[in-house]
TrEMBL record:
Mg(2+) binds at residues 165, 279, 283. The keyword Transferase applies. Signal peptide: none annotated. This is FAD:protein FMN transferase. GO terms for molecular function: metal ion binding; transferase activity. The lineage of its organism: Bacteria, Pseudomonadati, Pseudomonadota, Alphaproteobacteria, Hyphomicrobiales. InterPro entries: ApbE, ApbE-like_sf. It comes from the Bacteria. Magnesium. Can also use manganese. Coiled coil: none annotated. It comes from Siculibacillus lacustris.
């Protein structure tokens, strides 16, 4: 169920701050919008909730009946019809996978599930971990082929596609599209820690986004990122973990090793025009590690903040 609250804006009676929220992807979606006093948020709240539900119904690895899971169950080599939005996200994922030289990899679903993340059981499965050890990383188009004209896709190898590193960002972009469709010029929408802003607050200030300090033991702020007509996404190794042999293991998989990531970075935040790109590139740079990730960000003109396991922070903002 979505929630709504209304607060008077510092800009005066012509603009009112509305706060909406609802469940999404194991977390919550949220929207802060500035609109006239007479603006009815009921239709907006429903449209935002519907947009998130559509993304989940197509791209969730937790829902057996999602379109993504239909693709994952389809026989190897058999074409599977998929919706345009899922096809678009898969195309973007493959593009960023290629540009990142494999650091961003949506074909690691079997690894994700073996270690107790993603759809299925929530604890590590020793047998599945052993089964996936040493498996070659995802190499599109050899393992996944898309047919944009025909609206279909097919797996060419026994892999499980997992969109956890990009679908949430796309969900945020869908929230932004809905808000824009309602004629809103100033808003901040998000799912969990992935956010996208349009315009500024009524007083002209940008949207101030707190960057979390990467520490599992406490909730604290590392810094503040100002957003105007941009999105930010953060990937880290410190929150979603499982313990194996007494050691915490990250939910982020390293395609090069076929194991949970154990690199020299603990957090990467990326600012981009859209949240889909920010989400995927945050994961890619995290997997790359400090030196390679920083070099990649500079070469591609990505705006990123990289936080090392030693606490050192480097930025290309």
């Amino acid at each position: 169920m979505s929630k709504t609250s209304i607060e008077p804006s510092a800009a005066g009676p012509a603009s009112v701050r509305r706060v909406l929220s609802g469940p999404a992807m194991g977390a919550r979606w949220s929207a802060i919008v500035y609109a006239p006093q007479a603006f009815d948020t009921a239709d907006l709240a429903q449209a935002l909730a519907d947009a998130v539900e559509e993304v989940e119904s197509q791209m969730s690895s937790w829902r057996p009946d999602s379109d993504l899971e239909r693709l994952n169950r389809a026989p190897i080599g058999e074409w599977c019809a998929i919706p345009p939005r899922l096809l678009m996200v898969l195309e973007r994922a493959l593009t960023i996978g290629r540009l990142s030289e494999g650091a961003f990899d949506v074909g690691v679903g079997d690894l994700v599930r073996a270690y107790g993340f993603g759809g299925g059981r929530r604890t590590p499965d020793a047998a599945r971990i052993a089964e996936t050890a040493g498996r070659a990383s995802f190499v599109p188009p050899k393992t996944l082929e898309l047919d944009p004209v025909g609206g279909r896709a097919r797996r060419l190898a026994p892999l499980t596609v997992d969109l956890a590193g990009i679908a949430k960002g796309y969900g945020v972009d869908r929230l932004a599209e809905v808000a824009i469709g309602f004629g809103l010029a100033a808003f901040l929408v998000g799912i969990d820690g992935e956010l996208r802003a349009r315009g500024t607050k009524p007083d002209g200030r940008p949207w101030a986004i707190a960057q979390e300090r990467p520490d599992r033991a406490i909730r604290d702020v590392l810094g503040v990122i100002d957003l105007t007509d941009a999105a930010v996404a953060t990937s880290g190794t410190y929150r979603h973990v499982v313990e194996i042999d007494g050691e915490p293991r990250s939910h982020t998989m390293d395609p090069a090793t076929g194991r949970p990531l154990r690199g020299d970075l603990v957090q990467v935040s990326v600012v981009a025009p859209d949240c889909t790109s920010a989400d995927a590139w945050a994961t890619a740079l995290l997997v790359m590690g400090r030196d390679r990730g920083l070099a990649f960000a500079r070469r591609l003109g990505l705006s990123a903040i990289l936080v090392g396991a030693d606490g050192a922070t480097q930025s290309t903002l």
